[in-house]
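[agent] plan:
  1. take the single chain provided in the ticket
  2. run structure prediction with default settings
  3. attach structure tokens to the ticket
  4. add a short note for the reviewer (M.T.)
[agent] executing step 1
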Amino acid sequence: MAGRVPVGMHLAGQPGYNPAPQVNWGNAGGGQASAATRRATGTARGGAGMHALKLPAKAPCPGGLFTFARAAAIQCESNVTYPVKKDSPEDEYFTHWVKIALEHTGELMKGAPQLRDPILPAFVACEDFELIEIKYNQLKHMPKFTPGMKQSYTEDEDYRPDGYETYVDFFDTKIHYAINPSGYHYLVQKWPSWDWSWQLVVKGDLGEFNLTQEGQVAERTMTYAIQLSVAKLPKEGASYLGTEVKPGSKVIQIAFGELLSSCFVTWTKMYVADKTIVSALIKCDVWKPLTPPDDDEEEEEAAIEAGELTCGNKYSFNTIDDKLCVWFPGKSSKDDGEYKVLANFTIEGVMAIYQFADREKGMPWFRYKVRAIIDKDKEDVLYVTPEMDVGLQKYTTVGRIEGEVLVPLDEVEDKTLSGYFSKISAYLRCEGHFKV
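[agent] step 2 finished; step 3 output follows
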């Protein structure tokens, strides 16, 4: 019976924070305390890092897409399915290895006449792929507090940090939790478990292939896809892998099928046990761009780190006096140009991206985090979101406004853009030259 796996309504880009991990100084003289120290720091016999816990980075990764930087920062969350940007280094890397995995299955099929499903050779011959989404769980979402969390976490339930913050379980200090800027709490997963959460959905253009699961000519539009995930080889094994691959071995499961409504429907499965392919697909420590970035990309990254966001060669944004500004070039060689204020607030980053399962229903909605300084001498902070009913607010004691703004990009026009920001607070204002 075909299996169905939800694909739709992506919630992406809840960013994250990493204070320095706790140091267990242990007992330099040896003995039981020293052994405990070595286990805690990952230096016990059995290899460095065997027992060490890796914590999420402090600074949140920008945007809501899957990136190698997000995985390296340990900010991939279990309640998020991440889209992959077309033609990005991540798209190029995984597409490359998906093709290699499919070529490998093609070789396996030559010695396995029992693998006769026509969709298999159709995908092996496919050249046009689109990476739909990826799941990779380094942080397990905790919708409810455990007793140990309740005892350790002392902040107000409405607290929203600027980045990921971590804390330990009250009853077991080996267990670490993290809270992200949206206020969601997570269990920090041990790195050996990351592999088992990896899952990739890839759509393929199979050309003239137009069959249903039953082998009949399709009378509807078919969206063929594969789903790659990590699995243990079943007890019955797979004869085409050879006797050296034992049941229970860690393998890549490739499910062939279609995307139907909001579900991936499995038609048939194959397994890949080649260690090079398995490692390249699921081990984040080997993920890297296939081609090094060019000089322009390195200059752009340096500009971002310096606090100036550049968009190609057309726009240059900066924060001046706590306001979002954009560079306007001079109209003549004698005019040097100037920064003009776009808004009386700053956009701190993208907190999440909400995407329809059926992309024809509309473009994604973006949730931005914004900040406005009213009076630097006042310490009170007003935090507002589109879901809150703020009502009348007395600003005389407020020094800073922080908030979340939802913007449907395909519905925004120049005259309406400011309204999405002022909806959460009338104080937030965009200038007239803030164009979409």
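[agent] step 4 note for reviewer: The mean pLDDT is 79.
[agent] ticket updated
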